[in-house]
Amino acid sequence: MKPYPDYFITPLPWLPNIPAHWELVRNKNIFEETKDVVGDDIDAYSLLSLTTKGIILRDVASGKGKFPKDFNTYKIVKPGDMAFCLFDIDETPRTVGLSQYNGMLTGAYTIFHVANINPHYAYYYYLSLDNVKAMRPLYSGLRKTINTGTFLSCKLPLPPRPEQDQIVRFLDWKVSSINKLIGVKQRQISTLKELMQAEIEKQLRVYPVVDTVRLKQLGTFFKGGGFSRDNLVEGGGYPAILYGDIYTQYEYKTSVITHSIDSNAYDVSRKIVKSDIVMAGTGETKDEIGKSILYMGDEVVAAGGDVIVFRPNEGINVEYLLYQLYSQAALKHRYIHGKGDIIVHIYPAALGNTLISLSDEENQVKAVERINEIIDQVKKAIATLTKEISILREFKARLVADTVIGRIDVRGIKIPECEFVEETVDTENDESMEGMEGETYEE
Length: 443
Known about the structure:
Blueprint: E1 7-9, E2 17-19, E3 23-26, E4 31-34, E5 46-51, E6 54-57, E7 75-77, E8 82-84, E9 96-98, E10 103-105, E11 110-114, H1 119-131, H2 148-153, E12 155-158, H3 161-205, E13 211-214, E14 219-223, E15 238-241, H4 243-248, E16 259-261, H5 263-268, E17 270-272, E18 277-280, E19 282-283, H6 286-291, E20 293-295, E21 301-303, E22 307-312, H7 318-326, H8 328-337, E23 344-345, H9 348-352, E24 355-358, H10 361-404
Helix pairs in contact: 1-10, 3-10
């Protein structure tokens, strides 16, 4: 694909030049803000969420994610409308979406009706800017806000309408092809994880059981405490873990420390040491409680939030115990004993009653060695697939950017008939704005 023959220089700091026959038009000529709210008619609208994969339907009945007390202030969104999050932009994984649904979105978003442009072209353009957070020159204030008036006064490149349509067809075709490849690799990762779990289950059953005990007979529990998020510091602090780190970083035998705290909070906090097994006492869903097991490494770490720590007795094969807690039987036990509707809790007393099946010491060692071997192999394969997915996403972002700003000329390309394919939404790991649902923000 070749560039256009001629270009002209633009005044936009993120867009040096565009094809000579394109125009620059102000956003106010294509975007009309709408502030209509659902009020008492919430039953007439589907609940939507803006995620890294775009605007999706949310399943309220699933109970996953955070919900406000009521939806009266949620804004009405129609097919073809665009939603923008115009604050905390650098910290927000995705700040633009194009809706294909009649629904409602949190009042924190700015909603626009779109006219005088192919809305999919407008979406691809602002998606390309969001991918690199290119609109930083427009930010103001500590929350990195773009004032709505400032946004509407800003200009965007506008090809002739037939060319917009061709660009959209081209990108739909190419993006769909890339999304299909990503989907194949995501399914391969899911299959590998299932095989890994199956191998753990197999190794826990293959050797004769010599005793069945309750978890509380093998060690002691204590809860974290002594600090909160108010004690978090940027760099130079002491390592700490909160309950949210456990289930968001869920992975076999992982030690992930994502926070630092000040020295005073560290001194008074409960500490996690080598061979401790850490669990979340609080979660937004029973699945989070069920899967929340983290095996700590050598580092001494402060435990805060609603963190539950199990310290095995001396002589216990901790890795074998860890895999017992990853078993389907133990997961089901935690799921059943999670209590609560909006916030789910589980307590040491319930965790302590988890049944643990023990083989003899020699066979425990054999089981752990085999499980570790399988996990290492699977992790390497998953790492390769994950890197390939990352490369595909980078290529997709580059292709979108190069096309919508006119670096490549796609006018003469023959595009086959194809159905647009979205990238598969990972419901467990997708980054979304669900945590701010119901939040409102005044500029």
